[in-house]
# Entry
Amino acid sequence: MRVSQLDAHLLDQELFALLATNIDSALSLFKSSDALSNTSKTLLRAIIWKLGIWDHGTTYGASMQQLRYFNLTTTKKIVLGLVSVFGPLVSEAVQSELSPRLQRIVSKVEAVYEFATLLNFISFISGSRYDSLLHRLLGVQLKSTSLLYRAVSFEFLNRQLIWSQFTEFLLVFIPLLNLPRLKQRIQKYFPQKQFESLAFLDRRKCAICYNDGVQDCDIVVPYEAECGDLYCYGCIVPQIAICEGEGWECLKCGAVVKSAKLYDEKVRTPAKIELLSSSESGEIDEASEDEDEEDENDGIKVVNQEEEEEEEDDDDDDDDDDDDDDESD
# Structure
């Protein structure tokens, strides 16, 4: 019983704190949010008191614990409302606006009140009927509305235990499932869309990337399917693996693809290689012809230089002979 009463007070405090936090976050966008926050909290306490104690003779926390106030008259309801609604507001105003001397007096009164509250709580734990000092002064008691309040309900505990075990089972079981493969098998039992070929795409464009809405669908690490179409390695390999040997339908030609291999451009495009080889051989022939012409020109230049040197030597010999003749004469 005492545990239920304490839990009822804690539930009331948590409810007010939850609502006050949401109100403060909503009012934080306005100017002078502090004044609005104090006013809104006072109004919130008044609404909770009106809908709880005034209308039903209990609070929300007490009703959840199947408790109700007894010996509660209209006057006592009003006193409880005044203390619960305006008590925190008056306490804040007194602490901030009084002179230092009066504040010391008020602090002493609060110390006495706290000490009296502690004694009341000790007596309540020891077996007293009043859970707070205010309830003791008013003679108001929280009592159970059901004769079975001592019976412990395991319904919530059982739900939590079942849900916890179920989540642990899912954490172990779900990784063992091939969800994409399971989805593919389930889709077979539903009407399929008409096949739309993507053959209009360029050979260097990945149809899977295009189908997924990728803007730049140029193939990265090209892999060639059995049908001859090219796809990205990261696109076609998972698709084939999901099918588990049954084959994947090519998006370009509609053929069933069961395997793919790395695309080697040099091997798969012999025409280009022949063209390249012929063009390269032509360039080599042209280069050799140019070299031959340059060699011939160099040879001709060397012969001409040798002839000129011989002619110069002959002229020098003739000049020497003429000088010898002159000396003899």
